[in-house]
Design a protein that fits this description.
The protein is α/β, with parallel strands linked by helices and about 240 residues long. The chain is built from 11 helices and 8 strands. It has an 8-stranded parallel barrel with strand order 1-2-3-4-5-6-7-8, surrounded by 5 helices. The structure holds the ligand O=c1ccn([C@@H]2O[C@H](COP(=O)(O)O)[C@@H](O)[C@H]2O)c(=O)[nH]1. The site of the ligand O=c1ccn([C@@H]2O[C@H](COP(=O)(O)O)[C@@H](O)[C@H]2O)c(=O)[nH]1 has 15 residues, from strand 8. Its EC number is 4.1.1.23. Pfam families: OMPdecase.
Length: about 240
């Protein structure tokens, strides 16, 4: 029933809230994302809980600092045993390359499989006006593809981007590259603070490997039903 391409964002503040949602979603969901609000308040205990439940984990802390700090930070996080973690691509090539090299060396030392390391391109909440206001003169989509290519060259396993850019990233970076897309909204659901959105079916058709979905499931009257409906749309999209 579950589909590892669907990652549910656990944007809550306590382990009790996590347990409630994970119990409610049951066998419908096999992959969860832990973000800043949860990790900063509940800590690594949440990872242990999800692992006990045999769930896969994307640790979405979006590290952004100098190369040494990011790579050492990732080495600390790697020990918790998550499947995916990430940095900001705007930290630059040297930061990404140092991080990718360091975690592979460290994983070898620890004799473990390194988590997939992916890079956030341009946040899906950002629209062209926000982008221009920051002094940028290119289009968001051009920057996303540029950062995705740079991430690939630096040894990243994939990127976080909007589902609207997935087709271009797939063309530029090839088949063996993760494209993890937040900003996914089933038709008719609230957009919230997202800008560059697409439906679950469109995200997959554009080449996304994983869909990160939070509020359309968490805020639904019946989260399990909402997840099952999304899973059905995903299944039909690939036929
Ligand atoms: O560009 C990005 C990067 C990360 N996110 C995260 O994904 C989820 C989306 O949640 P929704 O409730 O489905 O909007 C959230 O945890 C963000 O931190 C993103 O949205 N965009």
């Amino acid at each position: 029933m579950a589909d590892n391409r669907l990652i549910v964002a656990l944007d809550v503040h306590t382990l009790d809230d996590v347990k409630k949602l994970v119990e409610e979603l049951g066998d419908a969901v096999s992959y969860y994302k832990i973000g800043m609000e949860l990790y900063y308040s509940a800590g690594p205990g949440v990872i242990d809980y999800l692992k006990e439940k045999n769930k896969n984990i994307f640790l979405d802390l979006k590290l952004h600092d100098i190369p040494n700090t990011v790579s050492e930070g990732l080495c600390s996080l790697m020990k918790h045993g998550v499947s995916i973690f990430n940095v900001h691509a705007s930290g630059g090539y040297t930061m990404m390359k140092t991080a990718a090299d360091k975690i592979r060396q460290e994983a070898e030392k620890l004799n473990i499989e390194p988590p997939k390391l992916i890079a956030v391109t341009v946040l899906t909440s950002m629209n062209e006006q926000d982008w221009k206001d920051m002094g940028n003169t290119d289009l968001i989509s051009d920057r996303v593809v540029r950062l995705a290519k740079l991430a690939k060259k630096a040894g990243m396993d994939g990127v976080v981007a909007s589902p609207q850019e997935a087709t271009m990233i797939r063309q530029a970076c090839g088949d063996d590259f993760l494209i993890v897309t937040p900003g996914v909204r089933p038709a008719g659901s609230d957009i919230n603070d997202q800008s560059r959105i697409a439906t679950p079916a469109a995200a997959l058709q554009n080449g996304a490997t994983h869909l990160v979905i939070g509020r359309p499931i968490r805020a639904a009257e019946n989260p399990r039903q909402a997840a099952l409906k999304i899973l059905e749309e995903m299944e039909n999209a690939v036929k």
